[in-house]
Design brief:
The protein is an alpha/beta fold. It has ten helices and 15 strands. Helix 1 packs across helix 9 and helix 5 runs antiparallel to helix 10. The longest helix has 20 residues. It is globular and about 50 Å long. The two termini are about 30 Å apart. The chain binds (2R,3S,4s,5R,6S)-2,3,4,5,6-pentahydroxycyclohexanone (ISE). (2R,3S,4s,5R,6S)-2,3,4,5,6-pentahydroxycyclohexanone binds next to helix 7.
């Protein structure tokens, strides 16, 4: 069975999802693309032989030839497009964030809960990254003992178009929030954000240190630095009672030149997480085709990530710790 997929958005991520679907995912066919920018949508359509290229995303969702939808349009459009997919009864993989406010995320959670089965997956692709998957397995094996501290580093070469200090958390920090919840199988209870004097190469509070106290005990500490200049760099080390487990620096090559030895850092996240994106899309297609449960982040996870990020905004503004308050979790998302 082939799942016919429509991709909404032909920007950086939409075009990349389209490419991965068209070239590297078994059992999927890219049948439609939508973007208000004719140049971008026509380029994706031409590159991958897609006949249906629409300016309007709702036309794509309504296209009877489209079985499932990827939403990779601007963040503020995610909520309405995901709701439209739910109304059309089509499985949807929505890029992060699920919506830009906790209330909007809850609208999606409520709509999905009323349907009574999971239709929405949120594009937190790190859950499929082989490195993070191995870290989670190491923790589950039990040899390391209980998790104590999760150190994370999230550096971008240069900011990609967002211009507020909150944007660091909403755009980049949100991945760390999600991976910490997933890895530790725990919920954030309290957030603290501290910042040094900002880099002189930016006008916002960059870098930032985000600290999450998890309900079950561990502390998560995240450096976010989105104008780090030298390249894209994501690191993580989980400190446990009897040892630690870290991500390996990811590079296919080691460069030795001019008296130095080093690994290469790409310009953005697409190379670093190429495997994660491919495995994520394959798992999504397999779940839809097999009628099985979706295995990626749920609408509830999308809500939690946005709610925790919003709590971090408060902590950033006030310089004080802020408590995370989540709504009760519906039974649909138990386990
Ligand atoms: C970007 O929007 C992403 O989602 C990337 O995965 C993340 O690493 C980057 O910091 C964000 O700007």
């Amino acid at each position: 069975m082939t799942i016919k997929v429509g991709v909404i958005g032909a920007g950086i991520m939409g075009a990349d999802h389209a490419r991965i679907l068209a070239t590297s995912v078994a059992g999927a066919e890219l049948v439609a693309i939508s973007d208000p920018d004719a140049g971008r949508r026509n380029a994706v359509a031409a590159n991958f032989g897609v006949k249906a290229a629409y300016p309007d995303p709702l036309t794509l969702i309504g296209d009877g030839n489209v079985d499932a939808v990827i939403v990779a349009s601007p963040d503020e459009t995610h909520m309405l497009l995901t709701l439209a997919c739910l109304d059309a009864g089509k499985p949807v993989l929505c890029e992060k964030p699920l919506a830009t406010s906790p209330g909007d995320c809850l609208d999606i959670v409520r709509r999905e809960t009323a349907i009574g089965r999971r239709v929405v997956q949120v594009g937190f692709m790190r859950r499929f990254d082989p490195g993070y998957v191995a870290m989670k397995r190491a923790l589950a094996d039990g040899e390391l003992g209980a998790a104590l501290i999760f150190h994370c580093v999230h550096r971008n070469k240069q900011s990609t178009g967002y211009s507020t200090s909150e944007g660091l958390i909403a755009n980049s920090g949100v991945h760390e929030i999600d991976i910490a919840r997933w890895l530790l199988d725990d919920e954030a209870a309290r957030a603290i954000v501290v910042t040094p004097k900002p880099s002189r190469l930016t006008t916002i509070r960059d870098p930032q240190i985000l600290i999450l106290q998890m309900a079950g005990g561990p502390v998560v500490e995240v450096e976010i630095f989105i104008n780090a200049q030298y390249g894209y760099d994501v690191r993580a080390e989980l400190v446990c009672e009897k040892g630690t487990v870290s991500l390996q620096p990811r590079s296919d090559t080691v460069l030795r030149h001019g008296g130095r030895e080093g690994v290469l850092h790409g310009d953005d996240w697409r190379g670093r997480f190429a495997d994660a994106y491919r495995i994520e899309l394959q798992a999504w297609i397999d779940a839809i085709a097999g009628g099985g449960a979706l295995v990626g982040a749920s609408a509830w996870d999308g809500y939690a990530a946005t709610a925790i990020a919003t709590t971090c905004f408060d902590a950033l503004r006030t310089g004080e710790p802020a408590d995370v308050r989540l709504e009760p979790k519906p039974a649909l998302y138990a386990a």
